[in-house]
């Protein structure tokens, strides 16, 4: 198994673990016991933003590798910003937002959980920040290659 497929496999495992955590009552129970009430809201929303940010960066990079960077282009140093597959990355963002919305809907059927449109917005913020971080990273790689030529 090559590193690319391993990357997608691990990304899917991470997504499944996050999905299971969203649909189980235990995280809420643990939070009630272990986290001071003044930090609960901040911590819960940080998990939403952080997790969807990680999923966006990780998945976005894998999409970038799959759609825009051939081995020949890497060898030639031809990986300018125009090569980035924006449509597939945008589709990934849409899928992540749909995952967040579906997770919130399914939480309405889980004990000690409730769905919230605001959590979907937090998820969206994580996706946007993740793609922004990816864009900055990829832009810096392109800039450093252009300078070294």
Describe this structure in words.
This protein is mostly helical. It has one domain. The chain has 6 helices and no strands. Helix 1 packs antiparallel against helix 3, helix 3 (37-68) packs antiparallel against helix 5 and helix 5 runs antiparallel to helix 6 (117-148).
Features:
single chain, about 150 residues, mainly alpha, 6 helices
Give the structure's gist in a few sentences.
By secondary structure, the protein is mainly α. The protein has helices at residues 3-22, 26-34, 37-68, 71-76, 86-107, 117-148.
Query: Which structural category fits the helices and strands?
Result: mainly alpha
Number of separate structural domains: 1
Q: Roughly what percent helix?
A: over 70%
Mean pLDDT: 84
Number of helices: 6
First and last CA, distance? 34 Å
Radius of gyration: 18 Å
Order of helices and strands: HHHHHH
Helices and strands in order:
Blueprint lengths: L2 H20 L3 H9 L2 H32 L2 H6 L9 H22 L9 H32 L1
Helix pairs in contact: 1-3, 3-5, 3-6, 5-6
């Amino acid at each position: 198994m090559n590193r690319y497929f391993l990357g997608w496999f691990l990304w899917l495992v991470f997504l499944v673990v996050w999905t299971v955590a969203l649909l189980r009552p235990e995280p809420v129970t643990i939070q009630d016991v272990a986290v001071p009430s003044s930090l609960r809201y901040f911590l819960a929303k940080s998990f939403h933003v952080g997790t969807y940010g990680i999923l966006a960066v990780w998945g976005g990079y894998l999409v970038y590798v799959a759609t825009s960077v051939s081995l020949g282009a890497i060898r030639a140093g031809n990986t300018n910003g125009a090569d980035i597959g924006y449509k597939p990355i945008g589709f990934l963002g849409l899928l992540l937002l749909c995952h967040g919305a579906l997770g919130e809907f399914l939480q309405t059927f889980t004990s000690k959980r409730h769905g919230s449109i605001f959590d979907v917005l937090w998820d969206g913020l994580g996706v946007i920040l993740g793609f922004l971080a990816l864009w900055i990273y990829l832009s810096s790689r392109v800039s450093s290659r252009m300078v070294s030529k």
